[in-house]
Every structure is written in structure tokens, then in C-alpha cells.
């Protein structure tokens, strides 16, 4: 980028890494990496910054989380994992591309690819990732799936909004676990009618306990719900989330950070309190 005119693929690559903004050009990390390479002439200075950028890409995030604790995994297994999360099609071309990606990542101590044995393993604890854009949900990780949900709630600040058309009463459990009055002052749940009556008694107990903690909690019903999507929304952030039951069952899915925030306040005004 520093020594010639960037191509479209260059720009897309830098966008994926969070190193380029289409409105302002190179981001602060992007500029720091450029300076390390072309002004200081010291690629080693850029290595930690590049490592952090690669770690935040969806493919790397899914592999770090999905392969964590598994040891050496055949590369076809890693490709299948990406396929299940919608990041690959499982073709021979995808396998070739994945080999190239893993070989390129070897120096960064994120994933270790063994070309001779065609295996890959995660060498970074997923918790080292700062607010990952993707949190994977998988059948064989029942405890970690709930941990992913709790960490999403833990990342919330000032308020938690949970939009879930079929919010069940067991969704109150992780909320109660993560409702820290030093961070959260208000919780709002918006759902359709299904599951609401069965949750009424638990909701009243939850609401009373939150009040004792100094947290305002309210659950409203909107019928029909204007969306089939599910969201957790907080100050400065939002995530697309799977159904609560999907997380508990461990079906293949993801919690995805999103820049698209739904028109929640308009929905909330039309909804009625669960009572």
C-alpha cells in the first residue's frame, strides 16, 4: 500500500483486518503497521499488531474457538468446521485456500499448521481474544456454549436489551448471573406471547431481585413480533444471537457482533408489560 496504487483486493484485505476505513484511509493500527514496515524498517514491530488483526477475522475466530482443546485436527476437519459456520463450501478450492491461510498464519502463534501431517491446532486460548466478532456454538461444547452467552452479556455496559421472539424463562438465568449493578442499570426483554405465561412467576421473582440490586428490569410482549431475528443490544454494541433454546441444545450457530441496530425503541413503545 505504501509503495504503489492499491488494488481492490488490497483494500478488501485491509478492510477485513480492520486496518482500513473507506472514508478515512488507514486506521490507527494500519498506519502503525505501515510505519513499522516502511519507516522503521522493522517488521518485528508490526508482528504483534498483525497478529491481533488476524485474530479478529471470522475464519480465525471460528478456528481458534472450535479447535480449542482438541489437539491436532485434520485440515479437512477444520474446513468442515468453517463450512458448518457458513465460512466455506467444503470444495477442493476451499481446502487449497485454507492451506494457504494456515501457512501464512504459522508465524503468528494463533494456529499451528503441520504441512507434512496436514493437521492444525489452536495454540491461543480463545479468552485471549478481546470481544471477538464471532462466538461459535457447537453440539460438543455444552458448557462453553453457555459461557459464550455469558461473556456476551458480560460485555454489556449500562443496559441490556434482549430481543427474542420466543424468550423462555431459562433465559433469565444467565441474565441473573451477569447482572452486575456496577455495570448495568437497566434490563429490557422484548418477546412474543409464546413462553411468556409459563415464565410469569419466574419473571416476577427475577424483577424483584434485580430491584434489590438496584437494576430496573422489564419484560414486554409484542404480538406479532416485527422480526424473527434475535438481538442483544447495549451501549455502543449489538449482537445477533441464536434462540436461547438453540444455545442450550448446542445446535451449530454463532453469536455475531453487528453494526446494524434494530429500531428497538419503536417496538418497545408498542409492547405491553408481561403481567
Tell me about this structure.
The chain folds into 3 domains: 48 residues, no CATH class; 71 residues, Arc Repressor Mutant, subunit A, CATH 1.10.10; 140 residues, Endonuclease, Chain A, CATH 3.30.870. About 3% of the residues have low confidence. The strands form 3 sheets. Strands 6-12-11-10-7-8-9-13 form an 8-stranded mixed β-sheet, with helices on both faces. Strands 3-5-4 form a 3-stranded antiparallel β-sheet. It has a two-stranded antiparallel sheet with strand order 1-2. The longest helix is centred in the last third of the chain and has 18 residues. The chain is globular and about 65 Å long. The protein is α+β, with helices and mostly antiparallel strands. It has 11 helices and 13 strands. Helices cover 43% and strands 19% of the residues. The termini are far apart. Helix 8 links the parallel strand 7 and strand 8.
Amino acid at each position: 500500500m505504501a509503495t504503489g496504487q492499491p488494488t481492490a483486493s488490497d483494500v478488501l484485505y485491509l478492510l477485513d483486518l480492520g486496518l482500513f476505513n473507506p472514508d478515512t484511509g488507514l486506521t490507527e493500527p494500519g498506519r502503525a503497521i505501515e510505519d513499522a514496515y516502511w519507516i522503521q524498517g522493522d517488521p518485528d514491530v508490526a508482528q504483534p499488531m498483525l497478529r491481533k488483526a488476524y485474530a479478529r477475522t471470522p475464519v480465525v475466530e471460528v478456528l481458534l474457538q472450535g479447535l480449542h482443546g482438541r489437539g491436532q485436527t485434520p485440515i479437512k476437519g477444520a474446513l468442515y468446521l468453517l463450512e458448518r459456520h457458513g465460512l466455506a463450501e467444503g470444495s477442493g478450492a476451499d481446502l487449497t485456500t485454507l492451506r494457504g491461510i494456515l501457512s501464512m498464519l504459522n508465524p503468528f502463534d494463533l494456529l499451528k499448521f503441520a504441512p507434512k501431517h496436514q493437521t492444525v491446532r489452536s495454540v491461543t486460548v480463545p479468552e485471549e481474544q478481546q470481544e471477538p466478532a464471532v462466538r461459535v456454538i457447537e453440539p460438543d461444547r455444552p458448557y462453553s456454549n453457555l459461557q459464550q452467552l455469558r461473556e456476551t452479556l458480560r460485555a454489556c455496559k449500562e443496559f441490556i436489551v434482549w430481543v427474542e421472539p420466543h424468550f423462555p424463562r431459562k433465559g433469565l438465568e444467565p441474565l441473573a448471573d451477569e447482572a452486575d449493578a456496577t455495570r448495568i442499570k437497566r434490563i429490557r426483554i422484548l418477546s412474543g406471547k409464546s413462553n411468556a405465561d409459563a415464565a410469569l412467576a419466574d419473571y416476577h421473582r427475577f424483577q424483584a431481585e434485580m430491584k434489590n440490586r438496584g437494576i430496573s428490569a422489564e419484560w414486554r410482549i409484542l404480538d406479532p413480533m416485527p422480526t424473527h431475528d434475535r438481538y442483544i443490544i447495549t451501549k455502543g454494541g449489538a449482537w445477533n444471537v441464536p434462540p436461547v433454546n438453540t444455545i442450550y441444545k448446542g445446535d451449530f450457530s454463532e453469536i455475531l457482533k453487528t453494526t446494524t441496530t434494530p429500531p428497538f425503541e419503536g417496538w418497545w413503545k408498542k409492547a405491553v408489560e408481561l403481567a
